[in-house]
Amino acid sequence: MTGSGISIRQANPADLTVLSELIAASYATLDDGKYDSDQFRAALPFMSKANPVLVESGTYYLAQLDGRAAGCGGWSVPAPWTDVVEDGVGHIRHFATHPDFKRRGVASALLAHCLDEARGQGVKLMKCQSSLSGTPFYEAFGFRQIGRVMTSVAGNPLPAIEMELAL
């Protein structure tokens, strides 16, 4: 629980439907003109589902506010897409805030929680692949841009911003 009334708990497989609904609602708002609309629409069904492996990892969280699922996100040691493990390096994974709860501190509380947990487990450098519109959020936490990368969601190319933060 945080001081803002936001509660954060470890997600579990019973949450998969709620998480997927939350992610789908959040990601539907990302098409803000920064992406090629056709590529974004093609990738959206695939990126809008909760990842069962990530949910079962023990480092993926559900935030609730006013009794509702308000946001989710987590971190992992294995890198997304490749599962490469680097000593002391973690990766922010699959963050989303339901549109009804944007600008209420949900994502900030989740990110702070993830960073604290990762520090406690020996992570010294946190990386993330931010959506184009999410970059200012991560910069506000001290992440710095490394460069633009091209991700592939079910064969659909989408640009992202590689970022990192020393913990």
How would you describe this structure to a colleague?
The chain is of the alpha+beta class. The protein has one domain (7-166): Gcn5-related N-acetyltransferase (GNAT) (Aminopeptidase, 3-Layer(aba) Sandwich), CATH 3.40.630.30. It is 29% helix and 33% strand. The protein is built from 5 helices and 7 strands. It has helices at 16-27, 37-47, 52-55, 106-120, 135-140, and strands at 7-10, 60-65, 68-76, 89-97, 125-130, 144-153, 156-166. It has a 7-stranded mixed β-sheet with strand order 1-2-3-4-5-7-6. The longest helix is centred in the C-terminal third of the chain and has 15 residues, at 106-120. It is globular and about 40 Å long. The mean pLDDT is 92.
Offer a few descriptive terms.
167 residues; alpha+beta; Aminopeptidase; seven-stranded mixed beta sheet; 29% helix; 33% strand; globular
